[in-house]
Amino acid sequence: MQTNNPRGKSEKKGGSSKVHNFVVQGSILAVAGIIVRLIGMVYRIPLIDIIGNEGNGYYTSAYSVYSILLIISSYSLPTAVSKMVASRLAVGQYRNSSRILRAAFLYATIVGGAAALILWFGAGWFAELLGMPFCRYALQTLAPTVWIMAYLGVLRGYFQGHSTMVPTAVSQILEQIVNAVVSIGAATWLVQKGLEANLVYGETEYASAFGAAGGTIGTGAGAGIALLFFLLLLFSYRPVMRRQNRRDRTRRLDSYGRIFGVMTLTILPIVLSSTLYNISSVLDNYLFAEGLRNLGQEQQMAELWGVFGEYHLLFNIPVALANSLSSSLIPSLANAVATRQRKQVIQKTRTAIRFTMMIAIPAAVGLTVLAGPISDLLFASHDNTLLIKLMQVGSAAVIFFSLSTVSNAILQGSNHMNIPLLNSGIALVPHIIALIVFQQVLGLGIYSVVYANILFALIVCVLNNLAIRRHLRYRQEYKKTFVIPLLASALMGAAAWGVCTGIQLLMPEDIAGSRIGLGIAVCCAVIAAVALYGIVLLKAGGFTRTEIREMPMGTRLLRAAERLHLM
To answer: Rounded CA gap, 169 and 155, in Å?
Structure first.
């Protein structure tokens, strides 16, 4: 495990090596994020086939409530703990970092337990509020998971504070594999029990509701396995912690009262800003349900929200990369701020934004031009007309949510904790107004939620960018960060559409529309798109040789680019 220089001094070529390490650690988490999202997407396909669109609506609604309570109990803990641990390790305060771990465990016990009780006993009330009474079963099965995730958040944050993302990456993959297996098995079994309950009680919703609960049981099982992994890792790391503590010459130890005070001041702004940033999903659910009631269309709620859940699943895959980069950015920035290395702060800010846009922009274009084939490939069991349209008009959300996520992390990591809270609060007001107007006045239906979400993320992006410019004295570079990726993505999108369409035209009609045919066409289109995007990016000067060397496997990438005469 890597630890920071106790005195916070730069190594030889320290600036380059630290940015390289930040990119490597972010890439490790990003790769894990891709694997996790792919596993999530793969298992959600049979899960949705099992529970149907209505069951997916219950599942999505339950998750929106769960996500808010997760933010309060544990979402902020990796960020807060990693930031506090990293700043102590930067100056060699090992004993204080151990005290932070113990204090964080106590916080997780109290807050995580309270959140679990609220979700268990308040499940019926939340379900009625969201206009879907039958989602209470999924809510109750998520209650223990909230508590488990609180402890998991502490341990992830502790190891991230040591500037290693490997434990978090491994735990996320383990968590998702177990989640996938248990979710499908539990959903299959509970759907059958739900069909029996339908016959007994003369209802039609129990099968979908119980199936959704089966999916959420898998979430708890996955979290439990991840927690067990971290506990074993922590136990094996204890001898190292003891040696570090013996070497620690810190004269004054932080009292637990002071640690709780600092932790509260660190966690609270993150909790509030993250809650405001994510509560829009719960508000969307509630306001959309109310709108349908006013229009006399409440019977469509579960099915429409299920389709929106499929859209959310797809656009969240590339956004996960921004989340991964953000997780590695916060402790890295906190270290640079603690040791007063302004050049490192600026360099890491620039690198984070550029890498995020380098992935988010082509992802948004790809989801737009391949919306039809991707949707029909993944969700072949039902009509995807609405989902395809949602993807085509809403894929821009990938860019704005990715940029707002990483800019939140930049501000939090540079000790401007309250600014993301304020900006999210400001953006929430026009978001709510827009949703009501789009649905109630303009009659845009489920598209109202998509447009309102894009507006929210766009406003947060603009406000965060202004704050970063003001407080960090950072001047955004536009050509390499936005213009060149946009140009490369436009050419890439045209190529992807052409390859996919061309291959489908060459296939027999019965094969072209099958999952096998769609899979071949999409895979070929993606390979061609990635290759063309990389070529255009390099030819247009998107990266210098130095920047490529700082990437993971950068030396090999540079040699390959030079052999192909791309640089």
So the answer is: 12
